[in-house]
Amino acid sequence: LWGLHPVGLQICYYLLFLQEEVTKSCRDKHGRWANPWPTWRFPSYSMLFRFLFLEKDNSNVPASKEALDRELPVMEPYFVQNPNLSGSGPGLRVTWLGHATVLVEIDGVNVLTDPIFSQRASPIQYMGPKRFRGPPCTVEQLPRIDAVVISHSHYDHLDAGSVASLNARFGGELRWFVPMGLMDWLVKMGCENVMELDWWEENCVPGHDDVTFVCTPSQHWSKRTAWDDNKSLWSSWTVLGPDHRFFFAGDTGYCSSFAEIGRRFGPFDLAAIPIGAYLPRDVMKGQHVDPEEAVQIHEDLQARQSVAIHWGTFALAYEYYLDPPLRLREALEQKGLKPDCFFTLHHGESRLISAQDEDVFD
User: Fold this and answer.
1) Domain range summary for the chain, segments of one domain joined by +
2) Tens of pLDDT along 251-297?
3) Where would you find the membrane-spanning parts of this chain (predicted)?
4) The pairing of beta strand 350-354 with beta strand 202-205
């Protein structure tokens, strides 16, 4: 009967929340990190052979710079145009810098995600996937960066040249947040302030104790050499400020973890969710969401707004290069959602999600 009392009900709900099962990271019998969901599958050798040698590449990226400038303009970021405006206030603002790199200014902390400013996503800069839209700024033109979050070890998300440049500019003042297994790599690059976390572990930037960084799950894999398959973990990242909440999906296939994250930390004011590199579907489904699944993640997270990432920069799969935002708009329409709730930006473009003096719950 006491459980029916309002105070008793609140305590019961709290205890249930504490007991809520969450998906923990796990390793296989060889000690390598593994995905714990039935939605995970890695392409078979026959799928990979068909993808590499038989499937038609429909990306059709124009060779003409003029055509690309019309369709995917690269804008000069606001902090390059007027560096005096680049001091972050307590609000929330996002700037897309291409691929999965976004600058998020949240509650006084400047966060950079999966930075890649190099021309190629490759261990060497004379071969490998080349970006067809250049970075809208250099590392030297960035405003103050307090934290960098890395989702996993693939070259289009962990770029050695960008890490070296960021470390040369900011040194020990910059905190790096990485999933398990990547600290040694960052330390070898000379980075001093590296925080390595497992799924659901959290930490903060020194001097900004009111903003919490939580390493959260994603469905993907890792590899940088012929010998290190899944020796480091992959993750998404949740950033919890006193006034705003931001989620960075990194690179992922669809799985149930996003509903878990939404239940524990939602609603989010902003989520950065990938929409590209999804065809052919049988090869990409386990590791890359398509736009329809991206919208489902947006809903799972209880995101008020989402920004599309992981498209329009590298041709990493076989869908037409302009299809991801088109399919995103169609998916939103099919769900009866407003187009502005999950938006795209031009390279270098910013959007103010919440101003300093705005009530975020309006």
Assistant:
1) 88-352
2) 999 999 999 999 999 999 999 999 999 999 999 999 999 999 999 99
3) none
4) unpaired
> What is the number of residues in the chain?
362
155 belongs to an annotated ligand binding site: yes
Neighbouring-strand partners of residue 195 = 177
- How far apart CA 1 and CA 5 sit, in angstroms, is 7
Which pTM value belongs to this model?
A: 0.92
Known binder of ligand: residue 96?
Answer: no
Looking at 3.40.50.740, 3.40.50.970, 3.60.15.10, 3.90.79.10, the CATH number of the domain 88-352 comes to 3.60.15.10
Identify the CA nearest to 101 among candidates 157, 170, 139.
157
Is 223 a known ligand-binding residue? yes
pLDDT tens digit sequence for 151-187: 999 999 999 999 999 999 999 999 999 999 999 999 9
Q: For residue 355, give every residue at least 6 positions away whose Cβ sits within 8 Å of its Cβ, in sequence order, or none.
A: 89, 91
Q: Tokens 């920004």 label which residue?
A: 307
